[in-house]
Design the sequence.
């Protein structure tokens, strides 16, 4: 068997791994990576019509955003994912479709392709084994966002575990992967893993204590809103809901506005009953203490208020958050509080690195305060090493991380005599 890394290798974004086994071809994730003026996709996947199955770990666009592209080039196989991932992907793809159409990025992002994605999707249940061609597979809770999964594959007498994005410990929103891991390990399902394909987003650093981050975050908001406003860019799925739960812990002296695609995503989470969600009732209560913004006319009325604005996108690449920043960047009393990972060549990363970002096409040095708080739905360096140690795979492949993070984990794994790899995009690893 062999693995071809079409994306997500020594990078965060456009995750796409091809598994070739006994003449059959399967794809693990089909992501997209937005940049300053366009996007990157796994364009190097050839003969898409010959793929036998596509397995999605979760709904984030860096794992699902290329589905319309694949359908455009005649994807004929089933797409397998959990029920939560299917519904959430539908919302996120509609947003990426709008962005792609506005920017004239690619003809694949047409309404028909989105419909084809939906029609091709087959829902799977957690912890149940399925068969497709010569592989069997099961989706296990990954603790990252609603519906997120690790994917266990059996083929050619081997066991392969694709971690997707995962978090071992429970957060304000999600039940961590630890209990699911223990259950599946004790049953034998996660024993004797031959090949582990592991994310490495935070492979180069441990994250600070979560409680300390939360306390500092709330304290800093209190300090800023004495004279100014706080803009909180969030990922619509996962981070937005965590921030809502956190802000609901106290009463604020200014209004809290909730804007962007995160409003629709949160509504969907509340309507359905996703597995492994914790604090759903608290989330329902938290929504009563924020004001949802659903029209541009509402936005214009509140823009000059002193307030807390929670809005997409999390990497400041577009969405309503740009409207708030455009009106508040020049006042040092205001603040932008980033709450998640910022990919290279995104506005959020530029904002962190040199306090500037692109506004209306112009690189602008911002005068407002800028801080990042390491809320994360990913395993940090300590959790990643713990995870590899629990699995004890014959071979481990690190991907979905910047080169520095991947290289550090590969060196660590080799020091413990694991057969470890850190592939680049377009690399093939054969076993």
Sequence:
């Amino acid at each position: 068997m062999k693995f071809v890394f079409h994306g997500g290798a020594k990078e965060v974004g456009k995750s796409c791994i091809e598994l070739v086994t006994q003449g059959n071809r399967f794809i693990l994730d089909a992501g997209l990576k937005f940049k300053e003026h366009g996007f990157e996709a796994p364009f190097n996947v050839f003969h898409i019509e010959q793929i036998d199955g596509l397995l999605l770990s979760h709904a984030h666009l860096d794992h699902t955003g290329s589905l319309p592209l694949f359908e455009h080039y005649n994807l004929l196989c089933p797409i397998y994912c959990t029920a939560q991932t299917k519904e959430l992907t539908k919302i996120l793809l509609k947003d990426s479709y709008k962005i792609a159409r506005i920017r004239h990025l690619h003809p694949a992002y047409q309404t028909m392709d989105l419909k084809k994605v939906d029609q091709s999707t087959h829902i799977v249940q957690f912890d149940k084994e399925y068969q497709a061609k010569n592989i069997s597979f099961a989706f296990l809770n990954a603790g990252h966002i609603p519906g997120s999964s690790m994917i266990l594959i059996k083929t050619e007498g081997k066991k392969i575990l694709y971690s997707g994005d995962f978090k071992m410990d429970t957060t304000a929103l999600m039940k961590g992967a630890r209990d699911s891991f223990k259950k599946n390990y004790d049953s034998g399902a996660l024993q004797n893993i031959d090949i582990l394909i592991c994310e490495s987003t935070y492979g180069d650093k441990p994250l600070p204590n979560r409680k300390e981050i939360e306390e500092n975050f709330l304290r800093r908001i209190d300090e800023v809103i004495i004279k100014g406003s706080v803009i909180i860019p969030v990922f619509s799925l996962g981070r937005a809901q965590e921030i809502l739960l956190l802000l609901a812990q106290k009463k604020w002296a200014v209004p809290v506005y909730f804007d962007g695609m995160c409003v629709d995503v949160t509504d969907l989470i509340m309507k359905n009953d996703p597995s492994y969600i914790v604090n759903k009732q608290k989330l329902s209560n938290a929504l009563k203490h924020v004001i949802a913004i659903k029209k541009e006319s509402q936005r214009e009325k509140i823009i000059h208020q002193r307030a807390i604005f929670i809005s997409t996108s999390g990497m400041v690449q577009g969405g309503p958050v740009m409207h708030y920043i455009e009106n508040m960047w020049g006042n040092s009393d205001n603040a932008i509080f980033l709450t998640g990972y910022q990919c290279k060549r995104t506005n959020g990363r530029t904002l962190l690195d040199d306090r500037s970002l692109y506004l209306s096409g112009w690189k602008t040095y911002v005068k407002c305060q800028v801080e990042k708080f390491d809320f994360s739905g990913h395993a940090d360096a300590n959790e990643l090493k713990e995870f590899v140690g629990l699995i004890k795979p014959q071979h481990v492949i690190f991907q979905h991380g910047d080169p520095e993070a991947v290289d550090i984990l590969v060196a660590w794994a080799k020091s413990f005599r694991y057969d470890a790899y850190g592939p680049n995009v377009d690399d093939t690893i054969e076993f």
Summary: The two ends are 6 Å apart (CA to CA). The chain has 14 helices and 24 strands. The mean pLDDT is 93. The longest strand covers residues 135-141.
